[in-house]
Structures are given as C-alpha cells and as structure tokens.
Specification:
Shape: globular
Radius of gyration: 28 Å
Strand content: 5-15%
CATH class of the largest domain: Alpha Beta
Order of helices and strands: EEEHHHHHHEEEHEEEEHHHHHHHHHHHEE
Largest sheet: 8 strands, mixed
Structural class: alpha+beta
Helix content: 40-55%
Oligomer: single chain
Number of domains: 4
CATH topology of the largest domain: Lambda Exonuclease, Chain A
C-alpha cells in the first residue's frame, strides 16, 4: 500500500535554504540543504575543469559573447571588480551555448516522468527518446512497494533539510530510502550520495510546519539505502545498495569541516620570543602571565590542578600521549617530573593543551567547566532573579546531536571559545549549570547557541562592551537592570528558557546585520527586550 504521496515544498530564503519552523515553534529558520552538506567533502576539481571546458567551447561558438567579455576588460586585460557580475553572466551564457545544461534538463524531465508512474498517474505523453528508459525503470522497480514519493525531510539536530525521492519497502520487509539518479556516470558521486541518503534515513517528514514519521508502521533502515541509476537515453536501469553508516560518519566530518571554514583566528602577526622565555608550542608570542578567560581568574595563571586535569584528559584520548610527547616544550619538565612549575610554565602548558584539544578534536564536556577552576575564582553574586527556578530543559539530545554540538564548540574561534567557556564556568559557579549530569538538552543547545552568537557580537562589533551585552541579556530575562551589573553574565545566560534563548539569538543575529536592538525602558527605568520581534 502506498502512503504519504502528497508532495510539498517549503518556502526558501534568498540563499535557497528551506525555511523551517523549529521544533519548539517560533520564526522559521533557514536550514542548510541536504545536497549542500552532502557535497562538503567532495573534490570539486573535475567539476570545475568541466565547467571551464564548456565555457571555452561556448565562447568559441558565440563570437558575440567573446567580444562582450573583451569589452569588459580593463587596459591590463583584467576584470574590474565592478564588472565581475557582468562577466560571470556572460560566462554562464557561454556554458549554455555549449549545451552545458541540456543533460541536466533531460534528467529533470525523466525524473518527473518516473514520479508520475510511481504516483499511479500514467503520463499523458512520453517523448519517444524516453520510452526505453521508462520501460527499463518500470521493470527494475516492480518488486518494491512505493511508500512515499518526493517527501521533504528535516534533520533538526543539524538544521538540515531536503527532499527524498522514494521511500520503498523491500520484499524482505525493510523500509529504505531510494534515490533516483539520471546522470551518465556516478563514479565520483557515491560518497556524497551516501551522506545525502544517511540524512534522509535519519530525518523526519516535515509538511507545512508539522513533523511526522517517514513511515508509520516501520523504522527506516539507517544502514542501507538504494540508488536507482537511470542514465538518460540508455534504456537501462541499475540498482545499487549504498552504505549509510559510512555516510553518517562522513556527515560528522562534514559538519566539522563547515565549522572549520568559519575560523578567523588562524593567523596572527609574528612576535619574536624573548631569549629568556621558554619556547611555546605554536604561537611565537611569549605565554601571557595573566590567564585567558578559559584558564582562571583575571590576573591569575591557570591553576596547577586545572592543567593536570587537562593533561590527563588529553593523555587518555586516542593518540594523546604521542601528541604530547611530540609537542612538549623543550627543556620543560612534565607535571610528574616536577612540582615547581612557575605561573609562566603553567601558562605555556595551558596553551599546549589548547592546541592538543583542537588537533585531537576532544569533545567539549563538563571537564571544561572545571570545579578546581571555579574554586580558584571569586564567586560572582547570585543571578538577579531571586525566584529563579530552572527552566524546562526539554528533550535530551541524541548522541549524534551531542557530538555535533561538542565538535562545533571545539572548533570555535579562540576569542569566542574563551568567552563561552568562561560563561559556562560562571553558570556552574552560581548554581546555574547549563549542562546537567553530562547530558545536553534542547535548552542547553539553545542557550549555548545564544552564547556563541553573543560572544561573536561582543568580540566583533561591541568592542568588548560587556555592559551593553549585560543590559540586553537582562532585558531578555525581564529582570531588574539595577541589580544586574553585580550578576555573573554566564549565570544570566543560564537562566534563559529555550524560547528566550532562541529569540535573543535571532535578535542578536539581526543586530549583526545592522538592525537596531529592540530594547525599551518602562516607567520604572527597567529594560525590556521585545522578544516577539524574533518570532
């Protein structure tokens, strides 16, 4: 029996991303397209070379386009910045002149004809060039029960969305994702296909804001998918199984790679090392005497207990001992060899830990909110919300979502990572832990995402004006602004409910684009933030 055959497509933003209402409600959010994420790790060299060849062929066929390109060059033969879009449009026309998109158009047409067949609607007209292809398709898919056609799917933990081609029930009863490909050669596509199908298999059906299972009576197989290869014009249809477990692993690497591309703190000006200073691991600058927010209170070096705990975690990781042995500063005794490390020595080792944790992709855990660090730091005043009760945490995140969250935190730009780490420790010290019993939840995910967005805003646009950020967070909490300056900012973040955190994130994101922050003051002088502007 065929189910879920009603097809639907979401609205999209200006970048073509599907706009999806979050599971908790609110303003639609742009989800990344599944095909975009799936191609993150692809080698685009062959595709780029093909596009160059098609452009050259099109310019040879269209002398008028070649002349127009020449007319847009400057006297040195270069393309001025203000004319790049014009020249790009001419190159696109040249590719069309070489029939670069004709194969894609034929594939789209064949795709549509197979959809009609699977929906039980005989096409009114099948072009003669497709007759053999359609006949081959019908014979190949006959043993399988079609459960769904062209269904939009979301993977909320990763904010990814896309449209699966088919949901099949195999003769042995398993329910699998089936994907139709009409290209002539799939040799370079299998890796991205496995990621794409793994996303669909783990996803949830989404229709106009409503989520539902892909199959109401069976679980979709997340180990195996099917590719229906129907190359245009060849009159044959071949079926292939695809390893979705490999695709799921690649998805984790893709998420990491996309976060990595956002890093802006990789290079810094070279500063010579004073001859008397111990050598640092990577950075040429001498280790600072005052610690960063990640490693202790202001003006204090990281505590020995904190550094010992971090070294223990690194040593326990796969490859950790070998990494430490390779990168340990020359002439520096290990923590087991000596108890006489100076504050400068501990600062150098703490920076070594930063590098090791990044290189080894160690998960961001409660160990980063270190109790010994909290004891070394003066306890901030309680949060300005005397009637505070822990907001609802919502569902616990899946292991995949937790791993993704930890990976994204591990790859943050250094200033942002330091701020978020400091705020998480503030929350812990004030009895407002964001993460409870080492379990991430929907609320902790929303609060940490809010912290990351606000940290970038503070670092890149507020010039470190924490007082203004404090006012905005206080207004989001609807708390007494007069008492708020004495409050630890991290504890205030941790007091946000999931809807408050999501709304504040949206407001700050728009502030980063130049929109005013909707802070108002009531008759008593208390700040209020119009959170409804994010809904």
């Amino acid at each position: 029996m065929t189910i879920n055959l009603d097809m639907w497509e979401p609205q999209r933003d200006r970048w073509g991303r599907p706009l999806i209402v979050p599971p908790g409600g609110g303003k639609p959010v742009g989800y990344t397209r599944a095909t975009t994420v799936a191609k993150t790790l692809d080698d685009e060299g062959s595709l780029t070379a093909w596009a160059q060849r098609m452009t050259a062929a099109g310019l040879a066929r269209r002398p008028d386009l070649l002349a127009l390109v020449a007319s847009n060059l400057d006297p040195n033969g270069d393309i001025p910045a203000e004319r790049r879009n014009t020249v790009q449009a001419l190159c696109d026309q040249a590719k069309e002149a070489a029939a670069a998109s004709s194969a894609a158009n034929l594939g789209t047409a064949l795709h549509g004809l197979t959809e009609q067949y699977d929906l039980g609607n005989a096409p009114a007209f099948v072009p003669e060039q497709f007759l053999a292809d359609i006949d081959a398709y019908r014979r190949a898919v006959e043993p399988f029960e079609v459960l769904a056609v062209e269904q939009f799917v979301v993977l909320d933990d990763y904010q990814i969305g896309g449209t699966l081609d088919r949901l099949w029930r195999l003769p042995d009863g398993r329910v699998v994702i089936a994907d139709l490909k009409t290209g002539q050669n799939l040799d370079y596509s299998w890796r991205s296909i496995s990621v794409q199908l793994a996303i669909y298999a783990a996803g949830t059906r989404y229709h106009d804001g409503v989520r539902s299972p892909l199959c109401i009576d069976s679980k979709v197989d997340t180990d195996l998918g099917i590719v229906i290869h129907l190359p245009v014009g060849q009159g044959r249809c071949d079926l292939y199984t695809v390893d979705l477990r490999a695709g799921w692993v690649a998805l984790q690497h893709s998420v990491w790679a996309r976060e990595w591309r956002k890093r802006k703190d990789i290079a810094s000006p070279y500063v010579p090392v004073p001859a008397s200073a111990p050598p640092s691991v990577r950075d040429a600058a001498p280790a600072p005497q005052a610690s960063t927010p990640e490693h202790g209170g202001e003006g204090a070096a990281p505590g020995r207990d904190t550094v010992v705990e971090r070294i223990r975690r690194i040593s326990a990781a796969d490859g950790g001992r070998a990494w430490l042995k390779l990168h340990w500063p020359a002439g520096m005794p290990t923590l087991k060899q000596s108890l006489e490390h100076t504050a400068a020595d501990l600062a150098v080792i703490a920076r070594l830990c930063d590098d090791a944790e990044r290189d080894l992709a160690l998960p961001f855990t409660d160990a980063d909110i270190n109790p010994s660090t909290a004891r070394d730091t003066a306890t901030p005043a309680p949060v300005a919300r005397p009637d505070w009760r822990r907001p609802a945490d919502g569902r616990k995140l899946s292991k995949a979502a937790t791993d993704s969250l930890r990976t994204s935190l591990q790859t943050l730009e250094t200033p942002v990572r330091h701020l978020v780490s400091a705020w998480l420790r503030d929350a812990e010290a004030n009895g407002r832990p964001v993460i409870v019993d080492k379990q991430h939840t929907e609320r902790s995910q929303a609060v940490i995402a809010c912290m990351v967005t606000c940290a970038r805003w503070l670092d890149e646009q507020l010039d470190g004006d924490e007082d203004y950020l404090r006012l905005v967070v206080a207004a989001a909490l609807d708390s007494d602004i007069a008492a708020f300056p004495a409050t630890a900012l991290g504890a205030a973040f941790a007091s946000l409910s999931k809807p408050e955190a999501q709304a504040l994130t949206g407001i700050v994101e728009r502030a980063q684009q130049g929109e005013p922050v909707p802070v108002t003051f009531d008759d008593t002088g208390h700040a209020r933030l119009r959170l409804d502007t994010a809904a």
